[in-house]
Amino acid sequence: MVPETPPLPLLTPFKMGKYNLSHRIVLAPLTRQRSYDNVPQPHAALYYSQRATKGGLLIAEATDVSKTAQGFLHTPGIWTKEQVEAWKPIVDAVNAKGGLQPDGQAPVSSTDKPISFQLEGMEFTPPRRLRTDEIPQIVDDFRIAARNAIEAGFHGVEIHGGLGYLIDQFMKDQVNDRTDQYGGSLENRCRFSLEIVEAIVNEIGSDKVGIRLSPHVNYMESGDSDPEALGLYMVKSLNKYNIAYCHMVEPRMKIGAENTKFSESLLPMRKAFNNTFIVAGGYDREEGNKAIEENRGDLVAYGRLFLANPDLPKRFELDAPLNEYNRETFYTHDPVVGYTDYPFLEETI
């Protein structure tokens, strides 16, 4: 008798709330710039369906919740009926397999401090500090977007609370210099994010809500003086809403693309959060399996590797070679190049 080889930890099933996942490899949300005029395009259906597996969890790209929420050119929105209808065939395709503000307005933020960071030669417009009386409308934009996502057929929504986006700007003390009830103390800085969580939970139900956080990451000059305290405060506060999952980015991502030795600094947050905990940040096959084995996360999100390998779970199962990703095509607007043209395993043999 030859003993059976135990399954890879990444390929073991997991129950996330009411959802039965067949494996623990998650497609991370990757900013794409291929939705012309903020309307998702048919080529997105191919992109996501290529990466779909029976019982697999895919997190779609960062999606604008309103006309004023745009951070990059050609990103998808979900605030109009046309956008909702355009998302439906994309969601259906997955289910079938188991500069940029309107009218020249300044982008809104927790501050009016400009950012010195540039992307591919682009200069970012200095932000406008949101007035206190404007914040409820922003919260409502998120609520309506969540409702629209469910109407479009999504099983749930992930609130993007990391990587320098608006919610992250409110939470981080190196950005937020407000003096009202949304600034100053840790509780005040997290108030905006938790109001959004509460509004969305009340709209679509806690079992359909996740959130992405990056307390340790100083992306787009959004850093915090005490990231562990911030992360712990957020996960403990999120427990009150019983949301489906918390998706947290590894501290090592703050130094860029270079991988470093794993830090255990996410463990306090992992232990404090009651429900599913997803980790992300430059994982490979070996490190992902180790994270599951050591109970540092329930699921592991992959970005660059999943982008370049649409059949990533199969490749991990077979320990097959991986396609190399091409950074130069990450943010192009082409509907094919660097998007749906990465080969499957059988095409490379």
From TrEMBL:
Gene3D superfamilies: Aldolase class I. Residues 10-321 form the NADH:flavin oxidoreductase/NADH oxidase N-terminal domain. Signal peptide: none annotated. One of its GO terms (molecular function) is FMN binding. It holds the Pfam family Oxidored_FMN. Its cofactor is FMN. The keyword Flavoprotein applies. The keyword Oxidoreductase applies. It comes from the Eukaryota. InterPro entries: Aldolase_TIM, OxRdtase_FMN_N, Oye-like. Keywords: Flavoprotein, FMN, NADP, Oxidoreductase. PANTHER family: NADH OXIDOREDUCTASE-RELATED, NADPH DEHYDROGENASE 2-RELATED. Belongs to the NADH:flavin oxidoreductase/NADH oxidase family. This is NADH:flavin oxidoreductase/NADH oxidase N-terminal domain-containing protein. It comes from Salix dunnii. The lineage of its organism: Eukaryota, Viridiplantae, Streptophyta, Embryophyta, Tracheophyta.
